[in-house]
Amino acid sequence: VQLQASGGGSVQTGGSLRLSCEATGTIFSNNVMGWYRQAPGKQRELVADITNTGTTNYADSVKGRFTISRENAERTVYLQMDSLKPEDTAVYYCKLSSRFINFWGPGTLVTVSS
After folding, report:
1. DSSP bridge pairs for 75
2. 112 with 8: CB under 8 angstroms?
């Protein structure tokens, strides 16, 4: 399984970005796709994830501002990020979990300036 993310960039406070992550390879139907982030000097943390049946889970810090969605046919997960804050600045990583195996994509940098 390979994951390819795109959509990172630089925005000002209050702006929006949309991240995309496409999975290729053999993927079992029962899986969870999600986004994690790692800010400088901090541990990687969950931002949001979504099961193949559409159940979502969000970090408290992004609830109401970020929306995760997926298109199973396209094996793609999206993260719509609105009302961005400087503290959202981080490298964002896509993750796919299936049958207790985790696959990570390369990070994409999101920078929010004040």
Report:
1. none
2. no
Q: What is the pLDDT of residues 40-64, one digit of tens each?
A: 999 999 999 999 999 999 999 999 9
Which among 92, 95, 96 is positioned nearest to 107, based on CA atoms?
Answer: 92
Phi, psi of 98 (to 5 degrees): -155, 130
* Positions in the chain short of pLDDT 50: none
Tokens of 89: 């600045």
Nearest residue to 94 (alpha-carbon basis) of 33, 27, 32, 50? 33
By the 10 Å C-beta count (0-12 exposed, 13-18 middle, 19+ buried), 18 is classed as middle
pLDDT at 88: 98
Question: Is 87:65 a contact under the CB 8 Å cutoff?
Answer: no
Amino acid at 12: Q
DSSP 8-state assignment for residue 1: -
22 with 11: CB under 8 angstroms? no
Give yes or no for a contact between 71 and 22, defined as CB atoms under 8 angstroms apart: no
